[in-house]
């Protein structure tokens, strides 16, 4: 049995203003709404953020939909973000569905932060 408590998201804010959302657990039909709420808040309140999914143990279609919606919403609101998801439970569905090419995937948290730092200095993020 799955419960919403199967998903844990820890948010920390770096000195440079980038929020880091480390996510663990199962992003299925029950867990995806927790991620959606977190991402909606990040998009509405943060200059930029990194979503680290390396501790996610399952990424189902509901979780994939949340990631796509986040991409669309972040683009509309001009909020740069980066996704880290190298574990097999995350990387495989992203690759198989072709979403790895559509999402701002980075190989590590430091690489994601570097990417966002470079983006914000070039674009002049809010």
UniProtKB/TrEMBL annotation:
InterPro entries: Anti-sigma_ant, STAS_dom, STAS_dom_sf. CDD domains: STAS_anti-anti-sigma_factors. Signal peptide: none annotated. Pfam families: STAS. Residues 8-116 form the STAS domain. Gene3D superfamilies: STAS domain. It comes from the Bacteria. SUPFAM superfamilies: SpoIIaa-like. Belongs to the anti-sigma-factor antagonist family. This is Anti-sigma factor antagonist. The lineage of its organism: Bacteria, Bacillati, Actinomycetota, Actinomycetes, Pseudonocardiales.
């Amino acid at each position: 049995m799955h419960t919403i408590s199967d998903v844990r998201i820890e948010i920390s804010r770096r000195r440079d203003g980038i929020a880091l959302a480390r996510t663990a657990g199962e992003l299925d039909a029950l867990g995806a709404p927790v991620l959606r709420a977190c991402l909606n808040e990040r998009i509405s309140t943060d200059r930029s953020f990194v979503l680290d999914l390396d501790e996610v143990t399952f990424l189902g279609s509901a979780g994939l939909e949340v990631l796509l919606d986040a991409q669309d919403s972040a683009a509309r609101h001009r909020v740069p973000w980066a996704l880290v998801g190298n574990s097999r439970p995350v990387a495989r569905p992203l690759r198989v569905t072709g979403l790895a090419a559509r999402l701002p995937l980075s190989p590590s948290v430091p690489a994601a932060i570097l990417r966002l730092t470079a983006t914000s200095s070039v674009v002049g993020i809010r």
